[in-house]
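Thanks for the sequence, V.! I ran 3-hydroxyacyl-[acyl-carrier-protein] dehydratase FabZ right away. Repeating your input here for the record:
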Amino acid sequence: MNTLDINQIKQYLPHRYPMLLVDRVLNWESGKSITAIKNVTANEEFFNGHFPNKPVMPGVLMIEALAQTAAILSFLTMGQKPDESTLVYFLGIDGARFKRPVEPGDQLKMEVEIVRVARGIWKYKAKGSVDGQLAVEGELMCTMRTANDVPVNLPAGTVAGE
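Predicted structure:
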């Protein structure tokens, strides 16, 4: 079984608190899939405003957690760790669906599979669940570039560094 702890995860992702949303990799298979977890705690910054009386993890952050998990899988598949100039760009999300709220105390289990890699574009099928219940699902697309290769005219909706 291939696992990664938080210190190993930090070698593959540039994100840090409060934006690092992967706590542990439970298993991964190069070129195929990865399973990771995000322990959702009441101390998360976003719960102060989303929502104070009924804290719920924002859907966009669930998608971000899946994308970070996908990025780890991509680097593991390539057999390399990113350097300081490597950026992962989120290119698209298709079919995103939110099936249940994720609340403090939940453990979001994220499962990501590589669908295909073509011309530097990675496509993944991703889902997150809590206690075996589907919470979020969708297809994600990302690409990797070095800071020097970043085009000035990124597609609409693309966020640098994600």
